[in-house]
Amino acid sequence: MSCPFPGFQRAPQGPLEPYKLLLRTAQQLRRENYAMAINLRPDFWWGAALIYLAAIPRRIGYAIEPGTPFLTHALPFPAHEHASISNLRLISASLQALGYEPLDELYTPERYPLQFTPTPAEQQWASEHLQAEGLSPEQPIVVIHAGTGGEVKLWRPEAWATCANRLASLPQFSTAPQLVLTGSQQERPMLEEIARKLDAPALLLTNTTVGQLAALLQRAQLVLGVDNGPLHLAVAQGVPTVNLFGPTDTRIFGPWGPAARHIAIASKQRCQGCATIPCGRLDFTAEEVAQHPCVRSISEQQVLQAIANLATQPMPKQVS
């Protein structure tokens, strides 16, 4: 079952509404009689409180206040560790709590790869959709997913267009690739802005399901984007990626895949008012974003060089 995030509702609400929602959701969970719950997000005290109120007997997570008292197994939190490793540690502790052998502790993408397999129906959807747009299975595809949940993490639309227009000159492409711009319906105006600056028409796809997007990414030779979920989905499809980071830490949130096939470009520009780079802040207002250009300071040349560096690696086979 999917549970709402009690403290993160966008609609106007009274101060007690998140707590009422927390109690209602806990009652739903209680009826499921779960034996164990794992709170994977270390700073998510709502999740820890939820599984406590649901009376789930084994509750595993990291010892970060104010969530620690709600857990039966609170592990020390390792700072600056990749989120995938932190999650694997929790899974290992959960196995031990159930009486099973823990995971082997060499946590690497090669041993514990990120995987998400689209269904045959989703793969068929991607093939038919691309074919309907006039794309053959042999035609190279590059996907740009420019959107993300935090405005401060966005790159410049004109910079995306500049890089897209230069792709055909890069060593891994013997012919000009078809560009596909993906995103949500709310992000469509940004995608259209990028498309207007392109030398060749792009295919815009919005409001796909996660599985449909994964099937589309399988067909790509390269996926470009900022710090967002679809870039991790691309990693799970084994497709090379270039990821742009600013306020978020690549050590924690970077791609969980072989470094030779997934390049994270971290901005080195510390914004005025931020003590460090990365600062970890995503809650800037629209007015404040202009004063925090860390991602936007990444140059087109940096991105093009990263793409060229991937040319030394074997490209994925096309999925028809």
Automatic annotation (TrEMBL):
<dbReference type="InterPro" id="IPR051199">
    <property type="entry name" value="LPS_LOS_Heptosyltrfase"/>
</dbReference>
<dbReference type="GO" id="GO:0009244">
    <property type="term" value="P:lipopolysaccharide core region biosynthetic process"/>
</dbReference>
<dbReference type="GO" id="GO:0008713">
    <property type="term" value="F:ADP-heptose-lipopolysaccharide heptosyltransferase activity"/>
</dbReference>
<dbReference type="InterPro" id="IPR002201">
    <property type="entry name" value="Glyco_trans_9"/>
</dbReference>
<keyword id="KW-0328">Glycosyltransferase</keyword>
<protein>
    <submittedName>
        <fullName>Glycosyltransferase family 9 protein</fullName>
    </submittedName>
</protein>
<keyword id="KW-0808">Transferase</keyword>
<dbReference type="Pfam" id="PF01075">
    <property type="entry name" value="Glyco_transf_9"/>
</dbReference>
<dbReference type="GO" id="GO:0005829">
    <property type="term" value="C:cytosol"/>
</dbReference>
